[in-house]
Protein backbone atom coordinates (compact mmCIF):
# COMPACT_ATOMS: atom_id res chain seq x y z
CA UNK A 1 0.00 0.00 0.00
CA UNK A 2 1.88 3.10 1.17
CA UNK A 3 1.18 6.67 0.15
CA UNK A 4 3.28 8.89 -2.06
CA UNK A 5 3.22 12.63 -2.47
CA UNK A 6 5.66 14.85 -4.34
CA UNK A 7 5.78 18.52 -5.29
CA UNK A 8 7.83 21.01 -7.23
CA UNK A 9 6.96 24.68 -6.69
CA UNK A 10 8.29 28.15 -5.98
CA UNK A 11 7.42 27.87 -2.31
CA UNK A 12 8.70 25.59 0.44
CA UNK A 13 6.89 22.31 -0.25
CA UNK A 14 7.51 20.55 3.09
CA UNK A 15 4.28 21.72 4.79
CA UNK A 16 2.17 20.59 1.83
CA UNK A 17 4.01 17.28 1.66
CA UNK A 18 3.23 16.64 5.33
CA UNK A 19 -0.42 17.63 4.83
CA UNK A 20 -0.54 15.28 1.82
CA UNK A 21 0.91 12.43 3.85
CA UNK A 22 -1.72 12.93 6.53
CA UNK A 23 -4.43 12.58 3.89
CA UNK A 24 -2.73 9.40 2.70
CA UNK A 25 -2.29 7.78 6.09
CA UNK A 26 -5.24 5.53 5.35
CA UNK A 27 -2.84 3.70 3.02
CA UNK A 28 -0.40 2.84 5.79
CA UNK A 29 1.11 4.37 8.88
CA UNK A 30 4.14 2.33 9.93
CA UNK A 31 6.70 5.04 9.17
CA UNK A 32 6.95 8.25 7.20
CA UNK A 33 9.64 10.29 5.51
CA UNK A 34 10.42 13.29 3.36
CA UNK A 35 13.30 14.25 1.13
CA UNK A 36 13.84 17.74 -0.29
CA UNK A 37 16.60 19.47 -2.16
CA UNK A 38 18.00 21.97 0.30
CA UNK A 39 20.87 24.18 -0.85
CA UNK A 40 21.69 21.72 -3.61
CA UNK A 41 21.84 18.74 -1.27
CA UNK A 42 19.38 15.98 -0.52
CA UNK A 43 17.95 16.50 2.96
CA UNK A 44 15.98 13.63 4.46
CA UNK A 45 13.76 13.34 7.54
CA UNK A 46 12.31 9.94 8.47
CA UNK A 47 10.51 8.59 11.50
CA UNK A 48 9.03 5.27 12.57
CA UNK A 49 5.33 5.49 13.39
CA UNK A 50 2.71 7.88 12.15
CA UNK A 51 3.07 11.10 10.19
CA UNK A 52 2.75 13.07 13.43
CA UNK A 53 6.10 11.53 14.54
CA UNK A 54 7.67 12.79 11.34
CA UNK A 55 6.08 16.17 11.89
CA UNK A 56 7.47 16.38 15.43
CA UNK A 57 10.94 15.58 14.13
CA UNK A 58 10.57 18.17 11.39
CA UNK A 59 9.40 20.79 13.90
CA UNK A 60 12.53 20.13 15.96
CA UNK A 61 14.87 20.04 12.94
CA UNK A 62 13.16 21.82 10.06
CA UNK A 63 14.20 21.27 6.47
CA UNK A 64 12.96 23.36 3.56
CA UNK A 65 13.01 23.11 -0.19
CA UNK A 66 11.01 23.84 -3.32
CA UNK A 67 11.21 20.28 -4.65
CA UNK A 68 10.47 17.21 -2.55
CA UNK A 69 9.05 13.72 -2.25
CA UNK A 70 7.35 12.08 0.73
CA UNK A 71 6.00 8.72 1.81
CA UNK A 72 3.88 7.01 4.43
CA UNK A 73 4.57 3.29 4.68
CA UNK A 74 2.71 0.03 5.20
CA UNK A 75 5.59 -2.37 5.72
CA UNK A 76 5.99 -5.30 3.37
CA UNK A 77 9.77 -5.94 3.26
CA UNK A 78 11.54 -5.15 6.49
CA UNK A 79 10.24 -4.12 9.91
CA UNK A 80 8.66 -0.68 10.31
CA UNK A 81 11.71 1.20 11.66
CA UNK A 82 13.46 4.39 10.58
CA UNK A 83 16.10 2.66 8.49
CA UNK A 84 13.45 0.97 6.38
CA UNK A 85 11.40 4.17 6.09
CA UNK A 86 11.28 5.86 2.68
CA UNK A 87 12.70 7.87 0.93
CA UNK A 88 15.61 5.58 0.09
CA UNK A 89 18.72 7.20 -1.28
CA UNK A 90 21.68 6.26 -3.40
CA UNK A 91 25.06 7.99 -3.52
CA UNK A 92 23.64 11.15 -1.87
CA UNK A 93 22.31 11.88 -5.34
CA UNK A 94 19.00 10.04 -5.78
CA UNK A 95 16.00 9.73 -3.46
CA UNK A 96 13.05 7.42 -4.15
CA UNK A 97 9.64 6.77 -2.63
CA UNK A 98 7.78 3.65 -3.68
CA UNK A 99 4.39 2.03 -3.27
CA UNK A 100 4.13 -1.63 -4.32
CA UNK A 101 6.31 -4.71 -4.25
CA UNK A 102 9.40 -5.43 -6.32
CA UNK A 103 9.38 -9.19 -6.70
CA UNK A 104 12.88 -9.59 -8.15
CA UNK A 105 14.58 -7.36 -5.59
CA UNK A 106 16.82 -10.17 -4.30
CA UNK A 107 18.43 -10.74 -7.71
CA UNK A 108 18.71 -7.00 -8.33
CA UNK A 109 20.29 -6.52 -4.92
CA UNK A 110 23.02 -9.05 -5.74
CA UNK A 111 23.66 -7.46 -9.09
CA UNK A 112 23.89 -3.96 -7.60
CA UNK A 113 26.20 -5.16 -4.83
CA UNK A 114 28.49 -6.47 -7.55
CA UNK A 115 28.55 -2.91 -8.92
CA UNK A 116 29.71 -1.71 -5.50
CA UNK A 117 26.38 -0.48 -4.04
CA UNK A 118 25.89 -0.89 -0.30
CA UNK A 119 22.41 -1.49 1.08
CA UNK A 120 21.32 0.07 4.32
CA UNK A 121 17.72 -1.17 4.54
CA UNK A 122 15.86 -4.47 4.25
CA UNK A 123 13.37 -3.00 1.77
CA UNK A 124 12.72 -4.01 -1.80
CA UNK A 125 12.63 -0.30 -2.67
CA UNK A 126 16.28 0.46 -2.14
CA UNK A 127 17.17 -1.39 -5.35
CA UNK A 128 15.23 1.25 -7.30
CA UNK A 129 17.34 4.08 -5.87
CA UNK A 130 20.55 2.27 -6.81
CA UNK A 131 19.29 1.28 -10.26
CA UNK A 132 18.46 4.91 -11.01
CA UNK A 133 21.80 6.09 -9.66
CA UNK A 134 23.59 3.46 -11.71
CA UNK A 135 21.88 4.66 -14.89
CA UNK A 136 22.64 8.31 -14.02
CA UNK A 137 26.31 7.50 -13.55
CA UNK A 138 26.32 6.06 -17.06
CA UNK A 139 25.17 9.35 -18.48
CA UNK A 140 21.37 9.04 -18.53
CA UNK A 141 19.21 11.96 -17.50
CA UNK A 142 16.71 11.44 -14.67
CA UNK A 143 13.83 10.38 -16.89
CA UNK A 144 16.04 8.04 -18.90
CA UNK A 145 17.42 6.60 -15.67
CA UNK A 146 13.94 5.97 -14.28
CA UNK A 147 12.86 4.39 -17.55
CA UNK A 148 15.81 2.02 -17.59
CA UNK A 149 15.36 1.22 -13.88
CA UNK A 150 11.65 0.44 -14.24
CA UNK A 151 12.40 -1.87 -17.14
CA UNK A 152 14.30 -4.05 -14.70
CA UNK A 153 11.50 -4.24 -12.12
CA UNK A 154 9.09 -7.16 -11.77
CA UNK A 155 6.07 -6.59 -9.59
CA UNK A 156 4.10 -3.48 -8.81
CA UNK A 157 5.24 0.06 -8.32
CA UNK A 158 4.33 3.68 -8.18
CA UNK A 159 7.44 5.77 -7.58
CA UNK A 160 8.59 9.36 -7.33
CA UNK A 161 12.28 10.09 -7.82
CA UNK A 162 14.36 13.14 -7.02
CA UNK A 163 17.94 13.77 -8.14
CA UNK A 164 20.45 16.28 -6.85
CA UNK A 165 21.69 16.62 -10.43
CA UNK A 166 18.36 17.90 -11.78
CA UNK A 167 17.05 20.29 -9.15
CA UNK A 168 13.44 21.36 -9.65
CA UNK A 169 12.49 18.10 -11.33
CA UNK A 170 10.71 14.98 -10.18
CA UNK A 171 10.11 11.86 -12.22
CA UNK A 172 7.27 9.49 -11.38
CA UNK A 173 6.27 6.12 -12.79
CA UNK A 174 3.55 3.59 -12.24
CA UNK A 175 2.73 -0.01 -12.99
CA UNK A 176 0.24 -1.87 -10.85
CA UNK A 177 0.00 0.85 -8.18
CA UNK A 178 -1.86 4.13 -8.53
CA UNK A 179 -0.31 7.55 -9.24
CA UNK A 180 -1.92 10.85 -10.22
CA UNK A 181 -0.32 14.11 -11.31
CA UNK A 182 -1.77 17.38 -10.00
CA UNK A 183 -1.60 20.59 -12.04
CA UNK A 184 -1.20 23.76 -10.02
CA UNK A 185 -0.43 27.34 -10.92
CA UNK A 186 3.30 27.36 -11.59
CA UNK A 187 3.66 24.16 -9.57
CA UNK A 188 3.10 20.44 -10.12
CA UNK A 189 2.45 17.50 -7.86
CA UNK A 190 2.33 13.73 -7.76
CA UNK A 191 0.25 11.68 -5.36
CA UNK A 192 -1.15 8.22 -4.73
CA UNK A 193 -4.60 9.73 -4.98
CA UNK A 194 -6.52 12.95 -5.43
CA UNK A 195 -7.18 13.29 -1.69
CA UNK A 196 -3.48 13.91 -1.02
CA UNK A 197 -3.48 16.96 -3.28
CA UNK A 198 -7.01 18.34 -3.23
CA UNK A 199 -5.98 21.24 -1.01
CA UNK A 200 -3.45 22.29 -3.68
CA UNK A 201 -5.40 21.73 -6.91
CA UNK A 202 -8.51 20.19 -8.42
CA UNK A 203 -6.94 19.45 -11.82
CA UNK A 204 -5.49 15.98 -12.24
CA UNK A 205 -4.09 13.55 -14.74
CA UNK A 206 -4.52 9.88 -13.94
CA UNK A 207 -1.43 8.08 -15.13
CA UNK A 208 -1.86 4.84 -17.02
CA UNK A 209 -0.05 1.55 -16.61
CA UNK A 210 3.62 1.89 -17.55
CA UNK A 211 3.52 5.71 -17.75
CA UNK A 212 6.46 7.86 -16.73
CA UNK A 213 5.81 11.47 -15.77
CA UNK A 214 8.31 14.29 -15.53
CA UNK A 215 7.33 17.40 -13.59
CA UNK A 216 9.00 20.71 -12.95
CA UNK A 217 7.45 23.96 -11.73
CA UNK A 218 6.37 25.01 -15.22
CA UNK A 219 6.17 21.75 -17.16
CA UNK A 220 4.59 18.35 -17.06
CA UNK A 221 5.29 15.67 -19.65
CA UNK A 222 4.13 12.06 -19.84
CA UNK A 223 5.78 9.17 -21.64
CA UNK A 224 4.62 5.61 -22.17
CA UNK A 225 6.59 2.49 -21.27
CA UNK A 226 8.48 2.78 -24.57
CA UNK A 227 9.58 6.26 -23.65
CA UNK A 228 7.37 7.93 -26.29
CA UNK A 229 5.57 11.17 -25.37
CA UNK A 230 1.83 10.64 -24.79
CA UNK A 231 -1.13 12.88 -23.97
CA UNK A 232 -3.44 12.02 -21.08
CA UNK A 233 -6.65 13.94 -20.39
CA UNK A 234 -6.78 16.52 -17.59
CA UNK A 235 -9.77 15.93 -15.29
CA UNK A 236 -11.31 18.18 -12.72
CA UNK A 237 -12.01 16.51 -9.39
CA UNK A 238 -15.26 17.31 -7.65
CA UNK A 239 -13.87 16.31 -4.29
CA UNK A 240 -14.15 19.19 -1.87
CA UNK A 241 -11.21 19.89 0.43
CA UNK A 242 -13.39 19.63 3.56
CA UNK A 243 -14.79 16.21 2.54
CA UNK A 244 -11.67 14.82 4.16
CA UNK A 245 -12.01 16.82 7.42
CA UNK A 246 -13.14 15.15 10.64
CA UNK A 247 -15.31 18.07 11.75
CA UNK A 248 -16.92 17.83 15.18
CA UNK A 249 -16.57 14.04 15.39
CA UNK A 250 -14.05 12.37 17.62
CA UNK A 251 -13.08 9.88 14.93
CA UNK A 252 -13.49 9.60 11.19
CA UNK A 253 -15.19 6.26 11.70
CA UNK A 254 -17.95 7.83 13.78
CA UNK A 255 -18.36 10.63 11.25
CA UNK A 256 -18.63 8.08 8.47
CA UNK A 257 -21.15 5.95 10.35
CA UNK A 258 -23.32 9.05 10.81
CA UNK A 259 -22.87 10.08 7.18
CA UNK A 260 -24.62 6.92 5.99
CA UNK A 261 -28.10 8.37 5.43
CA UNK A 262 -26.58 11.07 3.22
CA UNK A 263 -24.17 8.70 1.48
CA UNK A 264 -26.91 6.20 0.66
CA UNK A 265 -29.23 8.98 -0.51
CA UNK A 266 -26.46 10.28 -2.81
CA UNK A 267 -25.91 6.78 -4.16
CA UNK A 268 -29.61 6.46 -5.04
CA UNK A 269 -30.04 10.03 -6.28
CA UNK A 270 -30.83 10.37 -9.97
CA UNK A 271 -31.01 6.61 -10.25
CA UNK A 272 -34.50 5.85 -9.03
CA UNK A 273 -37.69 7.74 -9.59
CA UNK A 274 -41.35 6.84 -9.19
CA UNK A 275 -40.49 3.38 -7.95
CA UNK A 276 -38.37 2.40 -10.88
CA UNK A 277 -34.72 2.42 -11.86
CA UNK A 278 -33.96 5.16 -14.36
CA UNK A 279 -32.58 4.10 -17.74
CA UNK A 280 -28.86 3.96 -18.47
CA UNK A 281 -27.59 4.21 -14.91
CA UNK A 282 -25.00 1.59 -15.84
CA UNK A 283 -24.17 3.47 -19.04
CA UNK A 284 -25.75 3.72 -22.45
CA UNK A 285 -26.22 0.26 -24.00
CA UNK A 286 -25.65 -1.50 -20.67
CA UNK A 287 -28.99 -3.26 -21.18
CA UNK A 288 -27.58 -5.06 -24.18
CA UNK A 289 -25.03 -6.70 -21.91
CA UNK A 290 -27.13 -7.05 -18.76
CA UNK A 291 -30.03 -8.69 -20.60
CA UNK A 292 -27.72 -11.54 -21.62
CA UNK A 293 -26.53 -12.30 -18.08
CA UNK A 294 -27.22 -15.89 -17.00
CA UNK A 295 -24.89 -16.10 -14.02
CA UNK A 296 -23.01 -13.61 -11.86
CA UNK A 297 -19.52 -14.05 -10.43
CA UNK A 298 -18.80 -11.56 -7.65
CA UNK A 299 -15.18 -10.97 -6.64
CA UNK A 300 -14.08 -8.70 -3.78
CA UNK A 301 -12.07 -8.48 -0.55
CA UNK A 302 -12.82 -7.63 3.08
CA UNK A 303 -15.98 -5.67 3.72
CA UNK A 304 -16.72 -5.46 -0.01
CA UNK A 305 -16.76 -9.27 -0.08
CA UNK A 306 -19.44 -9.22 2.61
CA UNK A 307 -21.50 -6.86 0.45
CA UNK A 308 -21.11 -9.37 -2.39
CA UNK A 309 -22.38 -12.17 -0.14
CA UNK A 310 -25.54 -10.18 0.59
CA UNK A 311 -26.04 -9.61 -3.14
CA UNK A 312 -25.94 -13.34 -3.79
CA UNK A 313 -29.06 -13.85 -1.66
CA UNK A 314 -30.77 -11.06 -3.56
CA UNK A 315 -29.75 -12.26 -7.01
CA UNK A 316 -30.78 -15.83 -6.43
CA UNK A 317 -33.86 -15.00 -4.34
CA UNK A 318 -35.29 -12.08 -6.30
CA UNK A 319 -34.00 -12.60 -9.84
CA UNK A 320 -33.42 -16.35 -9.93
CA UNK A 321 -29.93 -15.85 -11.36
CA UNK A 322 -27.24 -18.19 -10.06
CA UNK A 323 -24.45 -16.27 -8.35
CA UNK A 324 -21.03 -17.18 -6.97
CA UNK A 325 -19.03 -14.97 -4.62
CA UNK A 326 -15.34 -15.35 -3.92
CA UNK A 327 -12.54 -13.46 -2.22
CA UNK A 328 -10.25 -12.08 -4.89
CA UNK A 329 -7.02 -13.52 -3.51
CA UNK A 330 -8.46 -17.03 -3.91
CA UNK A 331 -10.23 -16.46 -7.18
CA UNK A 332 -7.19 -15.09 -8.98
CA UNK A 333 -5.05 -18.18 -8.40
CA UNK A 334 -7.68 -20.82 -9.02
CA UNK A 335 -8.58 -22.63 -12.19
CA UNK A 336 -12.04 -21.19 -12.70
CA UNK A 337 -14.79 -22.68 -14.81
CA UNK A 338 -16.95 -19.91 -16.21
CA UNK A 339 -20.54 -20.79 -17.11
CA UNK A 340 -21.82 -19.25 -20.32
CA UNK A 341 -23.29 -15.79 -19.96
CA UNK A 342 -21.45 -14.93 -16.74
CA UNK A 343 -21.10 -11.32 -15.64
CA UNK A 344 -17.90 -10.59 -13.69
CA UNK A 345 -18.85 -8.23 -10.87
CA UNK A 346 -16.08 -6.55 -8.88
CA UNK A 347 -17.00 -4.73 -5.67
CA UNK A 348 -14.42 -2.38 -4.18
CA UNK A 349 -14.44 0.82 -2.16
CA UNK A 350 -11.04 1.99 -3.39
CA UNK A 351 -10.96 0.48 -6.86
CA UNK A 352 -7.27 -0.21 -6.28
CA UNK A 353 -7.24 -3.41 -4.21
CA UNK A 354 -4.46 -5.41 -5.83
CA UNK A 355 -6.16 -8.81 -5.60
CA UNK A 356 -9.49 -7.56 -6.94
CA UNK A 357 -7.78 -5.74 -9.79
CA UNK A 358 -5.71 -8.80 -10.65
CA UNK A 359 -8.88 -10.92 -10.52
CA UNK A 360 -10.58 -8.61 -13.00
CA UNK A 361 -7.60 -8.76 -15.33
CA UNK A 362 -7.42 -12.54 -14.96
CA UNK A 363 -11.20 -12.75 -15.46
CA UNK A 364 -10.91 -11.01 -18.82
CA UNK A 365 -9.01 -14.03 -20.11
CA UNK A 366 -11.77 -16.46 -19.13
CA UNK A 367 -14.53 -15.56 -21.54
CA UNK A 368 -16.89 -13.63 -19.28
CA UNK A 369 -19.82 -11.91 -20.91
CA UNK A 370 -18.49 -8.63 -19.55
CA UNK A 371 -17.39 -6.91 -16.37
CA UNK A 372 -19.05 -4.48 -14.02
CA UNK A 373 -17.45 -2.69 -11.09
CA UNK A 374 -19.22 -1.18 -8.11
CA UNK A 375 -16.78 1.31 -6.68
CA UNK A 376 -16.43 4.48 -4.61
CA UNK A 377 -13.44 6.11 -6.31
CA UNK A 378 -13.89 7.61 -9.76
CA UNK A 379 -10.94 7.10 -12.10
CA UNK A 380 -9.61 4.22 -10.00
CA UNK A 381 -8.02 1.32 -11.84
CA UNK A 382 -11.00 -1.02 -11.47
CA UNK A 383 -13.35 1.66 -12.78
CA UNK A 384 -11.18 2.33 -15.77
CA UNK A 385 -10.70 -1.32 -16.64
CA UNK A 386 -14.33 -2.50 -16.37
CA UNK A 387 -16.89 -2.58 -19.15
CA UNK A 388 -19.63 -1.16 -16.94
CA UNK A 389 -19.44 0.86 -13.74
CA UNK A 390 -21.79 1.93 -11.01
CA UNK A 391 -20.29 4.41 -8.58
CA UNK A 392 -21.27 4.45 -4.95
CA UNK A 393 -21.20 8.03 -3.82
CA UNK A 394 -20.06 7.58 -0.25
CA UNK A 395 -17.44 10.33 -0.48
CA UNK A 396 -13.93 9.74 0.87
CA UNK A 397 -13.84 7.08 3.57
CA UNK A 398 -10.87 7.70 5.85
CA UNK A 399 -11.45 5.30 8.77
CA UNK A 400 -9.69 2.06 7.96
CA UNK A 401 -12.72 0.06 9.09
CA UNK A 402 -15.20 0.40 6.27
CA UNK A 403 -18.70 1.61 7.17
CA UNK A 404 -20.46 3.93 4.73
CA UNK A 405 -18.68 2.19 1.86
CA UNK A 406 -20.48 -1.05 2.82
CA UNK A 407 -24.00 0.32 3.08
CA UNK A 408 -23.63 2.31 -0.14
CA UNK A 409 -22.32 -0.83 -1.85
CA UNK A 410 -25.48 -2.61 -0.72
CA UNK A 411 -27.58 0.23 -2.15
CA UNK A 412 -25.70 0.06 -5.46
CA UNK A 413 -25.92 -3.74 -5.57
CA UNK A 414 -29.66 -3.51 -4.96
CA UNK A 415 -29.93 -1.22 -8.00
CA UNK A 416 -28.13 -3.81 -10.09
CA UNK A 417 -30.32 -6.61 -8.74
CA UNK A 418 -33.46 -4.64 -9.61
CA UNK A 419 -32.19 -3.92 -13.08
CA UNK A 420 -31.47 -7.61 -13.67
CA UNK A 421 -34.87 -8.45 -12.15
CA UNK A 422 -36.57 -6.10 -14.59
CA UNK A 423 -34.68 -7.55 -17.54
CA UNK A 424 -35.69 -11.04 -16.36
CA UNK A 425 -39.35 -10.17 -16.23
CA UNK A 426 -40.04 -9.60 -12.52
CA UNK A 427 -43.68 -8.96 -11.76
CA UNK A 428 -44.10 -5.14 -12.05
CA UNK A 429 -45.89 -4.63 -8.73
CA UNK A 430 -43.21 -6.54 -6.86
CA UNK A 431 -40.51 -4.56 -8.66
CA UNK A 432 -42.10 -1.24 -7.67
CA UNK A 433 -42.48 -2.37 -4.06
CA UNK A 434 -38.81 -3.31 -3.87
CA UNK A 435 -37.60 -0.04 -5.40
CA UNK A 436 -39.88 1.89 -3.05
CA UNK A 437 -38.42 0.03 -0.08
CA UNK A 438 -34.89 0.80 -1.19
CA UNK A 439 -35.76 4.50 -1.40
CA UNK A 440 -36.59 4.45 2.33
CA UNK A 441 -33.13 3.20 3.32
CA UNK A 442 -31.57 6.63 4.10
CA UNK A 443 -34.45 7.50 6.44
CA UNK A 444 -34.49 4.10 8.15
CA UNK A 445 -30.73 4.21 8.73
CA UNK A 446 -31.16 7.73 10.13
CA UNK A 447 -33.63 6.34 12.68
CA UNK A 448 -31.34 3.49 13.73
CA UNK A 449 -28.52 5.96 14.36
CA UNK A 450 -30.62 7.41 17.17
CA UNK A 451 -29.83 4.23 19.13
CA UNK A 452 -26.24 5.39 19.47
CA UNK A 453 -26.42 6.24 23.22
CA UNK A 454 -27.98 2.85 24.02
CA UNK A 455 -25.36 1.02 22.01
CA UNK A 456 -22.59 3.05 23.67
CA UNK A 457 -23.91 1.88 27.06
CA UNK A 458 -24.10 -1.72 25.87
CA UNK A 459 -20.51 -1.52 24.64
CA UNK A 460 -19.23 -1.24 28.22
CA UNK A 461 -20.13 -4.86 28.79
CA UNK A 462 -17.77 -5.97 26.03
CA UNK A 463 -14.70 -4.17 27.29
CA UNK A 464 -13.28 -7.03 29.40
CA UNK A 465 -14.11 -9.72 26.83
CA UNK A 466 -11.49 -11.58 24.82
CA UNK A 467 -13.78 -13.30 22.34
CA UNK A 468 -17.19 -12.82 20.76
CA UNK A 469 -19.41 -14.88 18.46
CA UNK A 470 -21.74 -13.32 15.91
CA UNK A 471 -24.68 -15.30 14.56
CA UNK A 472 -26.99 -14.67 11.63
CA UNK A 473 -29.02 -16.71 9.19
CA UNK A 474 -29.70 -16.31 5.48
CA UNK A 475 -28.94 -12.85 4.14
CA UNK A 476 -28.02 -11.81 7.69
CA UNK A 477 -25.15 -14.25 7.91
CA UNK A 478 -22.97 -11.81 5.89
CA UNK A 479 -24.20 -9.06 8.23
CA UNK A 480 -22.88 -11.13 11.17
CA UNK A 481 -19.60 -11.59 9.29
CA UNK A 482 -19.35 -7.83 8.82
CA UNK A 483 -20.18 -7.20 12.50
CA UNK A 484 -17.44 -9.61 13.60
CA UNK A 485 -14.95 -8.04 11.20
CA UNK A 486 -15.68 -4.56 12.56
CA UNK A 487 -15.27 -5.68 16.17
CA UNK A 488 -12.03 -7.58 15.63
CA UNK A 489 -10.30 -5.03 13.45
CA UNK A 490 -10.77 -2.04 15.70
CA UNK A 491 -11.21 -3.41 19.25
CA UNK A 492 -8.81 -6.38 18.84
CA UNK A 493 -11.38 -8.64 20.50
CA UNK A 494 -11.28 -11.96 18.72
CA UNK A 495 -14.62 -12.21 16.95
CA UNK A 496 -16.02 -14.83 14.58
CA UNK A 497 -19.29 -15.08 12.74
CA UNK A 498 -21.23 -18.26 12.06
CA UNK A 499 -24.42 -19.10 10.27
CA UNK A 500 -26.54 -19.76 13.37
CA UNK A 501 -27.53 -23.22 12.18
CA UNK A 502 -23.87 -24.22 12.10
CA UNK A 503 -23.37 -23.44 15.78
CA UNK A 504 -23.88 -27.00 16.94
CA UNK A 505 -21.23 -28.27 14.53
CA UNK A 506 -18.38 -26.79 16.52
CA UNK A 507 -18.52 -23.24 17.86
CA UNK A 508 -21.04 -24.19 20.53
CA UNK A 509 -18.09 -25.83 22.31
CA UNK A 510 -16.71 -22.32 22.90
CA UNK A 511 -19.86 -21.01 24.55
CA UNK A 512 -19.65 -20.40 28.29
CA UNK A 513 -20.45 -17.48 30.59
CA UNK A 514 -17.46 -15.50 29.23
CA UNK A 515 -18.59 -15.73 25.63
CA UNK A 516 -20.87 -12.96 24.40
CA UNK A 517 -22.97 -14.12 21.47
CA UNK A 518 -24.29 -11.34 19.27
CA UNK A 519 -27.29 -12.32 17.19
CA UNK A 520 -28.90 -10.54 14.28
CA UNK A 521 -32.61 -11.33 14.46
CA UNK A 522 -34.77 -9.70 11.80
CA UNK A 523 -38.39 -10.67 11.67
CA UNK A 524 -38.18 -12.96 8.65
CA UNK A 525 -39.01 -16.56 7.78
CA UNK A 526 -35.89 -17.81 9.59
CA UNK A 527 -36.68 -16.19 12.93
CA UNK A 528 -38.10 -19.32 14.59
CA UNK A 529 -35.06 -21.34 13.52
CA UNK A 530 -32.82 -18.60 14.86
CA UNK A 531 -34.63 -18.58 18.17
CA UNK A 532 -33.91 -22.29 18.57
CA UNK A 533 -30.22 -21.54 17.98
CA UNK A 534 -30.41 -18.80 20.61
CA UNK A 535 -31.86 -21.30 23.10
CA UNK A 536 -28.89 -23.58 22.42
CA UNK A 537 -26.65 -20.72 23.51
CA UNK A 538 -28.71 -19.86 26.58
CA UNK A 539 -28.77 -23.49 27.70
CA UNK A 540 -24.94 -23.43 27.78
CA UNK A 541 -24.77 -20.28 29.89
CA UNK A 542 -23.76 -18.03 26.98
CA UNK A 543 -24.59 -14.34 27.17
CA UNK A 544 -26.87 -13.33 24.30
CA UNK A 545 -26.96 -9.84 22.83
CA UNK A 546 -29.77 -9.77 20.32
CA UNK A 547 -30.41 -7.10 17.72
CA UNK A 548 -34.03 -7.90 16.92
CA UNK A 549 -36.63 -6.37 14.65
CA UNK A 550 -39.08 -4.14 16.54
CA UNK A 551 -41.95 -6.48 15.73
CA UNK A 552 -39.98 -9.71 16.23
CA UNK A 553 -41.25 -11.71 19.22
CA UNK A 554 -37.87 -11.84 20.93
CA UNK A 555 -37.76 -11.02 24.62
CA UNK A 556 -35.04 -10.54 27.16
CA UNK A 557 -34.51 -13.67 29.23
CA UNK A 558 -33.13 -13.15 32.74
CA UNK A 559 -30.69 -10.41 33.67
CA UNK A 560 -27.84 -11.46 31.42
CA UNK A 561 -27.33 -10.21 27.89
CA UNK A 562 -29.66 -7.73 26.22
CA UNK A 563 -32.21 -7.36 23.46
CA UNK A 564 -32.06 -4.20 21.39
CA UNK A 565 -34.98 -3.45 19.09
CA UNK A 566 -34.21 -2.26 15.57
CA UNK A 567 -36.81 -0.97 13.11
CA UNK A 568 -35.45 -2.69 10.02
CA UNK A 569 -37.91 -1.21 7.54
CA UNK A 570 -38.41 -4.38 5.46
CA UNK A 571 -36.63 -7.58 4.47
CA UNK A 572 -34.83 -6.08 1.50
CA UNK A 573 -33.10 -3.23 3.29
CA UNK A 574 -32.72 -5.06 6.62
CA UNK A 575 -29.11 -6.21 5.97
CA UNK A 576 -27.96 -2.59 5.56
CA UNK A 577 -30.02 -1.43 8.52
CA UNK A 578 -28.83 -4.16 10.91
CA UNK A 579 -25.23 -3.46 9.99
CA UNK A 580 -25.40 0.02 11.50
CA UNK A 581 -25.82 -0.97 15.19
CA UNK A 582 -23.02 -3.51 14.76
CA UNK A 583 -20.75 -0.73 13.44
CA UNK A 584 -21.65 1.45 16.41
CA UNK A 585 -21.07 -1.41 18.84
CA UNK A 586 -17.58 -2.08 17.45
CA UNK A 587 -16.82 1.64 17.48
CA UNK A 588 -17.79 2.19 21.11
CA UNK A 589 -16.06 -0.97 22.33
CA UNK A 590 -12.88 0.16 20.59
CA UNK A 591 -13.09 3.66 22.06
CA UNK A 592 -13.58 2.22 25.55
CA UNK A 593 -10.65 -0.13 25.09
CA UNK A 594 -8.53 2.81 23.98
CA UNK A 595 -7.44 1.51 20.60
CA UNK A 596 -6.57 3.63 17.61
CA UNK A 597 -10.03 3.48 16.04
CA UNK A 598 -9.29 5.13 12.70
CA UNK A 599 -5.93 3.48 12.18
CA UNK A 600 -5.97 0.05 13.82
CA UNK A 601 -2.65 -1.72 14.18
CA UNK A 602 -1.16 -3.61 11.23
CA UNK A 603 -3.96 -2.67 8.81
CA UNK A 604 -4.40 -0.24 5.97
CA UNK A 605 -7.36 1.00 4.06
CA UNK A 606 -6.28 0.49 0.53
CA UNK A 607 -4.45 -2.76 -0.03
CA UNK A 608 -2.54 -2.25 -3.24
CA UNK A 609 -0.18 -5.15 -2.62
CA UNK A 610 -1.00 -8.86 -2.80
C1 LIG B 1 -8.85 -3.37 3.33
C2 LIG B 1 -9.71 -2.40 4.10
C3 LIG B 1 -11.14 -2.91 4.18
C4 LIG B 1 -11.68 -3.18 2.78
C5 LIG B 1 -10.75 -4.11 2.00
C6 LIG B 1 -11.15 -4.19 0.53
O1 LIG B 1 -8.72 -4.55 4.04
O2 LIG B 1 -9.19 -2.21 5.40
O3 LIG B 1 -11.94 -1.96 4.82
O4 LIG B 1 -12.94 -3.75 2.87
O5 LIG B 1 -9.42 -3.62 2.04
O6 LIG B 1 -10.96 -2.91 -0.04
P1 LIG B 1 -11.75 -2.33 -1.26
O7 LIG B 1 -11.20 -0.95 -1.44
O8 LIG B 1 -11.44 -3.22 -2.44
O9 LIG B 1 -13.18 -2.36 -0.93
From TrEMBL:
Record's keyword annotation contains Cell membrane: no
Function: Catalyzes the first step in hexosamine metabolism, converting fructose-6P into glucosamine-6P using glutamine as a nitrogen source.
UniProt KW keywords: Aminotransferase, Cytoplasm, Glutamine amidotransferase, Repeat, Transferase
Class of the enzyme per the UniProt entry, highest EC level: transferase
CDD domains: GFAT, SIS_GlmS_GlmD_1, SIS_GlmS_GlmD_2
Organism: Dokdonella soli
Name of protein: Glutamine--fructose-6-phosphate aminotransferase [isomerizing]
SIS domain location: 286-426, 458-600
Predominant location category: cytoplasm
Matching SUPFAM superfamilies: N-terminal nucleophile aminohydrolases (Ntn hydrolases), SIS domain
Active site: 2, 605
Domain Glutamine amidotransferase type-2 residue range list: 2-218
Record EC number: 2.6.1.16
Amino acid sequence: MCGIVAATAQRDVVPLLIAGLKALEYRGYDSAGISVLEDGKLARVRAAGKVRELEALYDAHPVAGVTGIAHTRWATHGVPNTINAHPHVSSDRVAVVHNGIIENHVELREELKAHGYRFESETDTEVIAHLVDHALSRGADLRGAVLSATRRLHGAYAIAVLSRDQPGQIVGARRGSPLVAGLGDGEHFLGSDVQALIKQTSRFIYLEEGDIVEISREDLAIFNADGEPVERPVRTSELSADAVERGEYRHYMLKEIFEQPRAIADTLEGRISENRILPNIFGVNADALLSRVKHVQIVACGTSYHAGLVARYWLEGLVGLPCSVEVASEYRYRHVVVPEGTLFLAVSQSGETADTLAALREGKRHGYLGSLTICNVPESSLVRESDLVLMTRAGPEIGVASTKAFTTQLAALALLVFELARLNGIEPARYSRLVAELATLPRVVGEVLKLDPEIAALAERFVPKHHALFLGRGVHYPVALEGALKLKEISYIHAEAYPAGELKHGPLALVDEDMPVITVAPNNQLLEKLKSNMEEVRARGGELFVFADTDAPVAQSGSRGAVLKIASGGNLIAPAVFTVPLQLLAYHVAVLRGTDVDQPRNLAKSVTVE
